[in-house]
Amino acid sequence: MKKIMVVCGNGLGSSFIMEMNVKKALTEMGKTAEVDHTDLTSAKTVQADIFLGAADIVGQLDDGSRLIVTLENMMSIPEITSKLANHL
């Protein structure tokens, strides 16, 4: 099972909302994955198959070893669905 880590600056509000939207997107796609959320600093030491978040935040995790999915609109379930579909 893939693990998706949703990342925001503080790991509280926006990443929690994105986590819920990712879970809705997965349900719509008929896919399953382990989904969790965290802050940017903690994400640097967390293991996950996919790191997802707003471009200005999650882009800071891109060291060439992580699969990074950036969102323009973190509230858009269609955008989450389209961007995750290629990686599940």
Automatic annotation (TrEMBL):
UniProt domain PTS EIIB type-2: residue ranges: 2-88
GO molecular function: protein-N(PI)-phosphohistidine-sugar phosphotransferase activity
Signal peptide (from-to): none
Keywords: Transferase
GO terms for biological process, alphabetical: phosphoenolpyruvate-dependent sugar phosphotransferase system
CDD domains linked to this entry: PTS_IIB_ascorbate
InterPro entries: PTS_EIIB-like_sf, PTS_EIIB_2, PTS_EIIB_2/3
SUPFAM superfamilies, sorted: PTS system IIB component-like (SSF52794)
Name listed for the protein in its UniProt record: PTS lactose transporter subunit IIB
Organism: Peribacillus muralis
Taxonomic classification: Bacteria, Bacillati, Bacillota, Bacilli, Bacillales
